[in-house]
């Protein structure tokens, strides 16, 4: 395999391993939020922020742990026939089926970018152009120029009304990491087909 592909696979694996291992500990944050929710409902006035915070932490836990789960092969698989195949046959099937996952994640990423653009106050139909203009303004004119591109920030419709752009940014970033990891898995499968372990 070319050195650039090997470096890509190792770099993406290392990054997603690091992020995934940090994301594992978010379960304790989730437990703490839910524990506080239970205590506050019994002993104090119930907190408005606990339910949505628990949902946001769960999104972060799930979406940032997803690429690491793909890397470890611990995601759910249908093992009816797959378990008895040779490593090379598995690599051929995985290299083919991962293309469907990459297509799905690409559509999901485009939808996440549209949702993030909406959370930042963009109501048009071309989110990619919006982000190109936003980052162009950030790099040429700084934060003040980028702030002019941001419109009315979306808030949740609950009583707490948190802004939604942070969790949508995290969701978009996690989907992007998953897409990078599936591309690394594709390269790894191509290597296995050629008899090279990356």
TrEMBL record:
InterPro entries: DctQ, TRAP_DctQ. Residues 30-118 form the Tripartite ATP-independent periplasmic transporters DctQ component domain. Keywords: Cell inner membrane, Cell membrane, Membrane, Transmembrane, Transmembrane helix, Transport. It holds the Pfam family DctQ. The keyword Ligase does not apply. Coiled coil: none annotated. It is found in: Cell inner membrane. The chain crosses the membrane at residues 18-36, 48-70, 91-120, 163-184. The keyword Lipid biosynthesis does not apply. It comes from the Bacteria. It is a multi-pass membrane protein. Its main location: membrane. The complex comprises the extracytoplasmic solute receptor protein and the two transmembrane proteins. Belongs to the TRAP transporter small permease family. Part of the tripartite ATP-independent periplasmic (TRAP) transport system. This is TRAP transporter small permease protein. It comes from Thalassovita aquimarina.
């Amino acid at each position: 395999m070319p050195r650039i592909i090997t470096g890509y696979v190792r770099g993406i694996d290392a990054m997603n391993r690091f992020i995934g291992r940090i994301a594992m500990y978010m379960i304790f944050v989730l437990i703490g939020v839910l524990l506080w929710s239970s205590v506050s409902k019994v002993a104090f006035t119930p907190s408005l922020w606990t339910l949505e915070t628990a949902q946001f932490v769960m999104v972060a836990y799930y979406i940032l742990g997803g690429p690491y789960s793909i890397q470890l092969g611990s995601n759910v698989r249908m093992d009816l026939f797959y378990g008895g195949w040779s490593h090379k046959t598995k690599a051929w099937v995985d290299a083919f089926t991962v293309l469907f996952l990459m297509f799905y994640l690409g559509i999901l990423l485009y939808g996440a970018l549209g949702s993030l653009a909406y959370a930042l106050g963009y109501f048009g139909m071309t989110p990619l152009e919006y982000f190109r203009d936003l980052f162009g303004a950030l790099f040429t004119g700084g934060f003040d120029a980028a702030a002019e591109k941001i419109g009315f920030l979306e808030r949740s419709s609950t009583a707490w009304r948190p802004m939604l752009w942070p969790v949508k940014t995290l969701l978009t970033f996690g989907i992007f990491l998953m897409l990078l990891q599936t591309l690394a898995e594709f390269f790894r499968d191509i290597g296995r087909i050629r008899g090279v372990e990356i």
